[in-house]
Write a structure and sequence with these properties.
The protein is mostly helical and about 350 residues long. It is about 70% helix and about 0% strand. Among the domains are: about 145-220, Leucine-rich Repeat Variant (Alpha Horseshoe); about 245-345, Leucine-rich Repeat Variant, CATH 1.25.10.10. Helix 5 runs parallel beside helix 6 (about 145-155) and helix 16 (about 300-310) crosses helix 18. The longest helix has about 45 residues, at about 5-45.
């Protein structure tokens, strides 16, 4: 076989593979479209005349019809009850009918040896607003996806013990779980403050960064004391996160702590402190922030200059003074901030 014949055979084979692939995609799309049409028809038969102006389907009959639908279709319908059934008595009927056997089935899945069934169980129970007796045990599940799903489930359940479980999950070795716990704690808000304070003041916590990030997002006054405590941590990454917490909460103690951190040996901590003082807009701290314009780090100088700009007239005064300083770096940073376009007309 010559090279030309070999190339032709290769091209013909690739063309055949492409045709088969396109045919498979077309068949899959056709099947999916047919199933969607079939599902819509099934749901329409269940609803009967609910959407029309005629006689409504009795609740008992509606419940019986809906319970006969495939599990997949019932879950999809319960996940997105829109149109004529949304906000009506029919929605309650559908929820009762659709969840009657699904709750028990999902509770059984929670004890399955297969992690993907346990995951399906948590998601199903989240959809149905159930699972208070079974899902909490899955916070200790060996699979991270299940633990993360359990954290998301806890958002809609006000049990105070769940907030403690979410805070404990901040120590999880898997990033996915820590992220899920942080997101859940930020969503539940004040319910998570007390266990978060307990976590931040415990002596044996290994992953403070996640907890401090949540504390900064919540910005509750009760979290100020733990934030001030960790501003003195030997770990610079912890000090930086703690500076964000105290800056988010504010107050005289927060300002004093941030002013002290402007002299921290770590560049990131000094930059965070300068940014925090700017966010608080506390103009009496302008002299300390102005001293940071001479910092060896460009990042610290930039945040200090931007902080002075946010402090109003007092900050502008120190920026203009910096223009006459002997330190060329401080003068250059002040000039950059004062020359921003929307500051061109500032006296």
């Amino acid at each position: 076989m010559t090279i030309v014949q070999l190339l032709r055979a290769v091209v013909a084979t690739e063309a055949l593979v492409l045709v088969l692939l396109l045919a498979a995609l077309a068949a899959t799309a056709s099947y999916a479209a047919a199933r969607r049409r079939r599902d819509r028809a099934r749901l329409a038969r269940v609803m009967g005349s609910q959407a029309g102006g005629g006689t409504k389907t009795p609740a008992a009959e509606l419940s019986h019809r809906f319970a006969q639908l495939p599990r997949r279709l019932r879950l999809a319908t319960l996940a997105d009850l829109t149109g004529p059934v949304h906000g009506t008595a029919s929605e309650l009927v559908l929820r009762r009918a659709g969840s009657a056997d699904l709750i028990g089935e999902a509770a059984g899945w929670c004890r399955s040896r297969r992690w993907w069934r346990r995951l399906r169980a948590v998601r199903t129970l989240s959809l149905l607003g159930e699972g208070a007796d079974t899902v909490p045990a899955l916070f200790a599940d060996p699979h991270p996806q299940v633990r993360a799903a359990a954290a998301a489930w806890a958002v809609d359940h006000p049990d105070p013990a769940l907030a403690d479980r979410l805070v404990d999950m901040l120590d999880d070795p898997m990033l996915r779980c820590r992220f899920a716990a942080k997101a859940a704690l930020l969503r539940i808000g004040r319910r998570g403050v007390r266990p978060l304070v307990r976590y931040l003041t415990a002596p044996d916590v290994h992953r403070l960064a996640s907890a401090l990030e949540v504390a900064a997002g919540l910005a509750e006054p009760a979290l100020l004391a733990p934030g001030l405590l960790h501003c003195r941590s030997p770990d610079p990454s912890v000090r930086s996160r703690a500076a964000e917490v105290v800056a988010a909460i504010g107050g005289a103690e927060a300002v004093a702590s941030l002013a002290e951190l402007l002299r921290d040996p770590d560049v990131t901590v000094r930059a965070t402190a300068a940014r925090g003082l700017g966010a608080l807009g506390h103009w009496p701290a302008a002299p300390a922030v102005a001293d940071a314009l001479a910092d060896p780090s460009w990042e610290v100088r930039r945040h200090a200059a931007l902080a002075l700009r946010r402090m109003g007239p007092a900050g502008y005064l120190y920026l203009r003074r910096a223009l006459r300083q002997a330190d060329p770096y401080a003068a250059d940073m002040a000039r950059q901030v004062l020359d921003l376009p929307y500051l061109a007309s500032t006296p």
